[in-house]
Design goal:
By secondary structure, the protein is mainly beta. The protein has a domain of 176 residues. The protein contains four helices and 24 strands. The strands form five sheets. The chain has a 15-stranded mixed beta sheet that branches. Strands 1-2-9 form a three-stranded antiparallel beta sheet, with no helix packed on it. The longest helix is centred in the first third of the chain and has 7 residues.
């Protein structure tokens, strides 16, 4: 029945009690896949020219230009599609083919859906200046345009949707023993195979495709740095590093449901604006999203001398994105596709403060020591990596479909100050990372007022230590004894709290990252 696919049911509120739903086998929704092996082919070719110009003895310009061609990915079996409202496919045959669904071979639709873009010129500029001519201070700056691409997973997601395959959510399930009883004819739509002369659709059909006007993403990257030798073998660098990304891909639902007074989770597909009852989600990959990254970066480095070297890095940064682009799908996500302005917020990968320090120390100071001390201490090396960073952002959601759009990713309303002192006793912190009374569920049909990724989780502290010693057995044979201690001080690094309002564990932290791990080994090199 599953065709090596994915089968999932959601049990919540058919009887009014989740446990009763489970015992009686009455799920509210069901997801089932009939996947296929997706294949995509594309090629990229590029040319690059660069030259350095010494304007003055202490001033150098680096100029470059890159030109590249990226062909749109194509499927060997033409399992690609797009959606153009009001246009009927001439390739897909049958009265059940939804209007607007087009595939390669239809007028104006190429095998790669979008046309080959030939204007990807990427200039690069770099400047290096020694302001005093003493070789102790350098000022550098650089900027460039960089064109990106689209992941194969995102592009070939088309092949997982009707009419090529099915990745369907059924919102009207009769029971676990007869999940298809309420479908037309009461029969299972599986197995599911693709034939353009007689395509299959499970109504209401979910479809996915790249928009015909899709453009490749591009990024402006720029930096400015000042480096100074402060002591012998010591250098300090302070930099600004930034990037602005544009036209990032995001799958918008063109058939997002409207809310009305009779709305329920079960009638989502009847409230869609385009062919309700025939089409469910219409995911169209648009090149419309932007991100930004700005950072202050400081580096202090001691070059190897007297058997000791060290580096320290500090970053103060902020990363923003228009919508959630990094999650457990290739499509991103939004609580309301008709109001994407609500989604701009911190990137999931944003860390405000990050500090990393590393040292390598070779204990070769005992050539004239007592032979016993020399035998024990000489030739040992000690290394360490210290990491300190701020916590990552997370969302606070209701745990239910508050706006009744068929998806349980709705955020809460903010009703007070949610922040608590993170430096309280650990038991207090784990029992309430934030003020749970500051959040409330909104009225049915409304979006949560809390912004995306407003809350910040616990930070991270870690020290890794390594001990190494080489024993020369013969001229070309070396035995190394090594001990590696991950999280050597066994520091407790708490995970993010439970952010689901409907959960009994809301606001609590019940897990932590890895504890100390020790590895001891020998390595023979010859």
């Amino acid at each position: 029945m599953l065709q090596n696919g994915h089968f999932m049911v959601q049990v919540t509120t058919k009887t009014g009690n989740a446990l009763a739903d489970f015992v009686t086998g009455l799920p509210v929704t069901m997801n089932q896949d009939s996947p296929i092996t997706a294949l995509d082919n594309s090629w990229t070719t590029a040319l690059f020219v660069q030259d350095d110009f010494r304007v003055q003895p202490r001033l150098t310009l680096n100029l470059g230009l890159r030109y590249e061609l990226q062909t749109p990915p194509t499927d060997p079996f033409d399992r690609e599609s797009t959606f153009v409202r009001g246009v009927q496919s001439q390739v897909l045959k049958g009265s059940n083919v939804p209007t607007g669904l087009l595939v390669p071979g239809d007028p104006g639709i190429s095998r790669g859906i979008v046309s080959l873009q030939k204007n990807h010129f990427s200039p690069r500029l770099g400047v290096a200046w020694d302001p005093k001519g003493d070789a102790k201070t350098s000022i550098r700056a650089g900027a460039g345009i960089f064109y990106g691409s689209v992941s194969g997973n995102e592009w070939n997601s088309t092949s997982n949707y009707n009419p090529f395959a099915v990745r369907q959510q059924f919102n009207n399930v009769q029971s676990l023993t007869n999940p298809y009883g309420l479908l037309p004819g009461g029969v299972s739509p599986f197995p599911f195979t693709y034939n353009p002369s007689a395509p299959q659709f499970i109504l209401p059909a979910s479809i996915y495709g790249v928009a015909p006007n899709f453009k490749w993403p591009y990024t402006y990257q720029f930096n400015f740095s000042v480096q100074r030798q402060v002591f012998k073998n010591w250098a300090l660098t302070t930099s600004y590093v930034g990037s602005l990304a544009h036209r990032l891909p995001f799958a918008e639902d063109l058939n997002y449901p409207f809310y009305n007074s009779t709305a329920t989770s079960a009638n989502v597909n009847n409230r869609r604006p385009i062919q309700p009852g025939t089409l469910a989600q219409i995911f169209s990959v648009q090149s419309v999203m932007n991100t930004s990254y700005h950072s202050l970066q400081v580096t202090l480095e001691k070059r190897l001398s007297q058997n000791f070297s060290a580096k320290a890095f500090y970053t103060f940064a902020k990363a923003l994105e228009d919508v959630q682009l990094d999650n457990n799908t290739t499509n991103g996500g939004a609580q309301n596709f008709r109001n994407l302005d609500e989604e701009r917020g911190l990137s999931d990968n944003n860390r405000r403060h990050v500090m990393v320090g590393s040292v390598i120390w070779n204990l070769n100071y005992f050539d004239k020591a007592n032979p016993w001390i020399k035998a024990i201490v000489k030739d040992w090396s000690i290394s360490g990596i210290l990491t300190l960073q701020s916590g990552g952002p997370f969302n606070v959601t209701t745990g239910s479909d508050t706006n009744l759009d068929g998806t349980n990713n709705d955020r809460v309303n903010l009703a007070g100050n949610p922040f608590l002192d993170p430096h309280r006793q650990r038991s207090d912190v784990t029992n309430a990372w934030f003020n749970t009374a500051a959040f409330a569920k909104g009225a049915n049909g409304t979006d949560g007022t809390l912004g995306r990724n407003v809350m910040i989780g616990p930070g991270y502290r870690n020290l890794d230590i390594g001990l190494f010693r080489d024993f020369r057995i013969w001229e070309r044979v070396m035995l190394q004894a090594r001990g590696e201690f991950t999280n050597a001080f066994n520091l407790v690094n708490l995970s993010n709290p439970n952010g689901t309002l409907s959960s009994a564990l809301f606001g609590t932290i019940r897990s932590a990252r890895d504890m100390r791990q020790v590895q001891i080994g020998l390595r023979l090199t010859f």
